[in-house]
Amino acid sequence: LKEKYGKNITNPCNLGHYPIYSVTFTNDILINGKLCKVNGITIEIADTMKEEFHDVNSRQRNVEFSSLEEDVLRRDFSINSGLISIMDGDVVDATTFNNDIQNKIIRCNSGVDKDKIFSDDPLRILRGCVFHARFGWEIESSTKEAMKRNGYRLEIVSKERITSEIKKAFNVNFGAYRLVSMLNQLELLKYIFPHLESSKNVLQWISEKEHDIRNIHLEGYSVFHHNLSVLRHTKSGIINGFASIFHDIGKTKECRQVVDGKVRFINHEYIGKKIAKKVLKEFYKLDNNTVNLICFLIENHMKMHQLVELNDKNLRRFINETENEEKRQYLFDLCNADSLGTLIKYDDGSIDGNLAHYEIQERINDLIEKDRNSICKSIYLFNGNELMKILGIAKPCKLVGIAKKLLLEIQYEYGNDIDKDFAKKLLIERFNSLELK
Questions:
Q1: Rounded to the nearest 5°, which phi and psi values hold at 43?
Q2: Strand duo 138-139 + 105-106: pairing
Q3: What is the pLDDT of residues 109-129, one digit of tens each?
Q4: Exposure string (b/e) for 327-357, b if CB count within 10 Å is 16 or more?
Q5: Would you say 75 and 83 are in contact if contact means Cβ atoms under 8 Å apart?
Q6: Whole-Å CA distances, 382 to 134, 372, 375, 379
Q7: Helix axis angle, 358-371 to 312-322, nearest 10°
């Protein structure tokens, strides 16, 4: 390829001790007189091989040259075993590749030892679930049973590889829901999302047969039922997926209370933030920025239910705390999924998801437009020196900090475009009314 296409392709890069090479096209190329739009595409070229796994506690393998047939039979699923002749373009029907692609079925190749395939490299079990999540294809029954039998082997897979596969599922619509559903069906949740497995034992009803008097959370008696219902409405994306799966991790037996026929999990959002921060870093190996954003969403996911009745002053405070539009959008998405995933009984007897809070999103956007100036940051009408002069503060001290807080409260109340003279008058009045030692 390099000899034929020269500067239109990168130099081959060897990816390992066995002959596996990677090349990337730097331009579109002509093949048989036709322009192929391949600019930026990377392909890998490997020799045929067979593999042996000698350490039961590791996915490390030894490979050696083999026939084409042996190479096909070492692969996990038939849909990953397609062969095509580069000479004439014909598909080599050495596997069930064609039929399974057309019928949207995930299965092991015929003639292989399924237990050996999944035990040798248990990541293949998770890959099967992720293929199901990404494409919505069904897993063939005997393949599914073999995945379930060997699920315990997932314990030897590195956390980084687990997270890498999870992200692929989260990046498609309904991917997170389908992944969790399939893992639950195969009894594998405890290896991938252990907190979800534990949430099956945390009741959000009075008992397994009696919901509380508010007629909410009719989606099921456990926190797991609620989480699964929320995932049905979760938007695609890594942040959205992890935030939805972890938003109620703080609902534990310890913080569960039943008061006057109502089940409550007091401060579960703050408890959840602390738990999630540890788990997201140590188990899923996510970077700090991602962890901090997800924890912010967990901590604040209850606020949307409270914003409906707030005045403009408190909405401005909320806008300031969320810092930027991207953060607010993630929070809107999580809270709306949480609402839609909470089934309630309405006055007419119908049961449906709780109303999403789209009206709050519109109100906040209208408020930002009304204020004109950016209120996503703490922009003070007066700087420190000006505050000292206005309030007669002789030198920098903690009183300047108090004055700044008062000024920000005034801006929350009236908007950043408040008349400066009016703001100065209010500031002096409120500062002088304080009992300062």
A1: -125, 155
A2: parallel
A3: 888 899 999 999 999 999 999
A4: bbebbbbbbbbbbbbbbbeeeeeeeebbebb
A5: no
A6: 53, 18, 15, 9
A7: 90
